Predict the structure.
Amino acid sequence: MPAAILLNVLQVALVLGLSPLLRGVLNRLVERLQSKRGPVIWQPYRDLFKLWHKTSVEHEGASFIRRFAPYAYFIAPLIVTMLIPVLTAFPLFWAFMGDMVAAGFILGFGGFFLALAAIDAGDVYGAMGASRTRMVSSLAEPIFVIVFFAVSLTANSTIPYVVTAHWISSAGAFFAPSHLLLLAAFLMLLLAETGRIPVDNPSGHFELAMIDEARSLDFAGRPLALVKWGGYMKFMVLGVVLTNVLVAPWGLLTTVGPVPIVLAVAVLALKLLVLVGLVAAIEGSLAKLRLYRIQEFLGAAFVTAVLALLVQPFHQ
Amino acid sequence: MGFVSGALVPVNAFIGALFLLSTILLMAFRQVEGYMRYFIWQSVLLVLSTADLAVIRGSPNLFIVAVITLAAKVIMIPLLLRRVLHDELRTRREVELVINTQASLLVALLLSVMAYILVIPVLPFAPSGAAVNLPVGLDVLLIGMYTLAIRREAVPQMLALMAIDNGVFYAGVSITDSPAIIELAAGLEGVMVVVVVTILARTIAQHIGSTAVGHMATLKEGESR
Amino acid sequence: MILVALPVTALVAAAVAALRPWTNLPRMATAVAGVLEFLITLDVAIRVGQGATLQVPAAGIGVDGLAAVLLLLQGFVGMTASLYSWGYIRQLTEANRDRERWYHVNLNLFLASLFVVPLLLVPALAWVAVELTTVLSIFLVALENHHAALEAAWKYAVITIMGATAAALGIFLLLWGLSMRAPAAPQTWSAIIAAGPHMPAPLVRLAFVLIVIGFGTKVGFVPLHTWLPDAHSQAPTPVCALLSGVEVSTALYMILRLWPVFTTSPGFPAATWAIVIGLVSVGTAAFLLVQVHDYKRLFAFSTVEHMGILLAALGFGPLGAYAAIYQLLTHGLTKSLAFYTSGGVLIRTGTRDISEIRGLMQFAPWEGWSLLLAGLAIAGAPPFAVFLSEFSVVRSAYAVHDYWAIGLLLGFLLIAFLGILWQLTKMLFGTPHSDRRARSPRSLPLTVVLSAVPVVLLGVYLPAPLHHLFQMAAMNLRR
C-alpha cells in the first residue's frame, strides 16, 4: 500500500516536473530542424519561474472565473495522470475511477474554463482564441469518442490499464490494422488538441492567427504560469496516453523497487523523446493550415478513426 | 502453418491498414508532388504485402510478382512520370477540386463501408491474408475511381488510375496464384499504360496549354455548338 | 501455325511500315496485311465451322466457334479499314509523311492486339490483350491532335482503362473460385466455365458486377458510355470503324466468354440483369440519337444501342444466344460501312455538323446515296443484315415469352430507327448550303462497295456454313 501511494505521488510529480522539460526539448528540436540554435531545454522552467514571481494584473469587472480557470486548467491533467499508466503496468488506486473517455472529459473541463476565462476578460483576441479552440475541440471530440469506441471494440474496455495489457497480449492484436489506424487518428488528435502544427503554430506571435495561445494573452504573472504549465502537462499526458496506452506498452513497472522505478522512468523518457522527435519532424515538414483547412485535417483523422472501427470486426 | 507465417498474417494486416491510409491520403491531398509520394508509398506497400503473402504461402510465383511490381510500379513508373512530366509536376501545385476534401473524406468512408458490405459474403471462403487484402483492395478500387472522378488535372487522374490498378492487384495477389508470365504481361502493360497516357498528357499540355483535362467539355450533346 | 500467323502478319506490317525506303510502303504494307489477315481469318472460320479443333492448350492459344466469329469480323473490318486508310489518311495528314507512317505502324499494332484477344485461352492474358487494344488505339483516336480529338482520347484512355482494371479484379475472383474447386487446373476459359456452378454464389455475383461494369465500360453500356461517342466520333474514320465495329465487340467478347459462369451459378438471375442493362442502354441511346448534332456521333450512339440489344439478347434463352452472335457480326459489318460512308461525307463537306449539311443528294449524289444506304442498314431496315439479326433477337424474346422486353425493345428500336433516318434526311435533302467540291480519294468508293457486300448479302441470305458457325458460337454461350 505505501508503495502504491509512493508510485501515485511519483507519477504526479513526474508529470509536474518533467512536462516543462519535454516542451523545452521539443522547442529546441523544432528550432534545430529549422537550422536555428534554439533555446536551451531548460527555458520553460525559467519562464515558469519568472512568471511565478511577477505580480498579476486583472481586468476590472472580471469575474471569479478569471481567478478560478488557471487552477482548473492546471489541475485537470494532474487528475488524468492518476487514471493512466504513466509508470506502472498494474492499476493504482484511481485506475478504475475513470476510463479514457473520462480522461478526455477532464481535459476538456480544463479547456472549457480557460475558454470562459478568455471571454471573460472582454478582450477581442481572447474571445477569438476561445472560439477557435472550441471549434477545433468540437471537431476533435467526435473523433476522440470514435477512437475510444474502436479501442473498446478491440480491447473490450476503455480503462487504460486494460487496453495496455491487451495490445501486448498477442502479435495479432498489436499488428491489427485497426490498431495502426487508431494510432494515426490519435496522433492527429494530439496535434490538434495541443495546438501544434499543422493546426496551430505554437511559436507564432501574430494574434490574428493564434488559436491556442490567444486564450492566455490576457493572463499575467502566476495565473499565466499555471496556464502554461497546464499546457505543458496536457501535452505530456496525451503523449503518455499515446505511447503507454496505445503504441508501446512495454517497459512499464511490474515490480516495485528503486531500480525498476528508475528504469521505468528512463524508458518513459525515451518513449516521449521519440514522440517529441516525431512531432518535431511533422512541424518541420508541414506548414500551418489555414483555419478552414483544419476541418480537412480533422476530417482525415475522423475517417481514419472510423476506418479503424470498420475494419476491426473482420480481423479479430 | 509454421510459427513464422503465423506472425506474418498480422503483419500483412498491418500493411493493409497502411495501404488503405495511403490511398485516403492520395485522395485527400492537394499537391501533385504529394500524389506522387503517396502513390510510391502505396506501391511499396503492395510489394511488401505480396512478398509477405509469398512467404506465408511458400509461393515462388508471388515472389516473382513482388519483384515485377517493385520494378514496374516503384521504380519505372515514378521515374517515367518524373522524366516526361517534369515541368508539369513542378508547376502544378494546388489542384482545383470538384468536391471539397471534407465531403470527399466522407464519401471515402461510405465507399469503405460499401466495400466491406460487398465482400463480407465472400470472406468465409478466403485464404489467409485475403480477409484483409480483398476488402481493402476493393475499397482502394472504389476510392480510386472516386478520386479519378473528382480530379481535374491530368497527372492526378493518371495516378488515381494507377492507384486503382494497385488496389486490384493488392486484392488479386491474396486470392490467386497466377503463373509468372501473366504477371509479367500485366506489369509491362501497366508501364505501357503509363507511357502512353503520359505522352498523351504532354501532348495535351503542348497543344492546349494546360493539363486541366477536367475542364475539357467541348464534346457533348444538347445545345448546338 | 495459322493462328499465330494472324498477329504476326500485323506485327510484320507494322515493322515494314516503320521503315522508310519510299513513301507508299507503309500504306501498302497495311493494305496487303489487311487482305492477308482477312484470308487467314476466313480460313480459320471455315475450318472451325467444319469441326476442326484449332487448339494448342500447351501454348495457351486456340479458337472455337465464338472466337472464330469474332476473328472473322475482325478480319473483315480490319481489311476494309486498312484499304480505307490508303487514301483517307494521306488526305487527312496532308502529306505529312511522318505522321502517316506513324499512323500505319500504330494501326497495325492495334490490329495485332485485337487479333490476339480471341486467340488466347487464358483469361488473364486475354485481359492484358484487351488493355493493350486500348493503349494502342489511344494515339489513333488522338491522331488529329486538335482540342476535341485530344479531349476524346483522354476520356477514352482514362475511363476505359479504369473499367478494364476493375474487370481484372472480377477475373481474379473467378480464378480464385476456380482454385477452390480445382487448385491445379490450368487457368483457362473452359476450366473456369466448368468450375462455375461449384463456385460460391456471392463470389460469382461480385465477379459479375466487376466484370460487367469493367468490360461494360469498354463496350459502352449506359451509364458507362460517356466516353464512347467522343472517341468514336473524333478518331479518323477507319479507326472509328474499327473502334465501333470491332473493338467494342472484342471487349464484349470477354463478357460473352464468361457468360456461362454467370448463367450456371445457382440462384443468380444473370438473364434478367442482361435484359435490364441491355434495355437501359438501348433506350438511352435511342433518345440520345435524336438530339445529336454530329453525324459521326449519331453512329456512335447507334453502337451503344446495338450493344444493348446484344446484351439483352443474352437474356432470351438459347435462341437469344444465337441472335446475340448474329447481332455481333452484323453490327460490326454494318457499323464499319456507316462510318466509311460518313468519312466520305466529311471529306466532301468538311464538317461533322448535321445542321450545316443540306441537300447532299443534289450536290454529292454518290456520298448521299451511300450514306442513305448505310443509314437504312444501321437503323435496321429490311433487306439489310441488321434487320435480320434484330428480328431474330425479338423472335428469341418471343420464344421465352418475355413480352415486356419485346414491347420495350420494339419501342426503342422504332425511336432509334426514326431518329437515325430523321437526322440523315435533314442532311440528304433540301437545298444545299454550300457547293464544296473537295475530292474524295479513289480508294474510298471501292472500300464502301466492298464493305457493303456482306451487309446486303447477309440481309437476304445466310450461308449454311455461317449459320453452322453461329450455332457453334451460341453453344459456347451456354454450358
In short: Residues 3-209 of chain B form one domain. The interface with chain A takes residues 7, 9-11, 13-14, 16-18, 20-21, 24-25, 28, 100-102, 105-106, 108-109, 112-113, 116, 123, 131-132, 135-136 of chain B (CB under 8 Å).
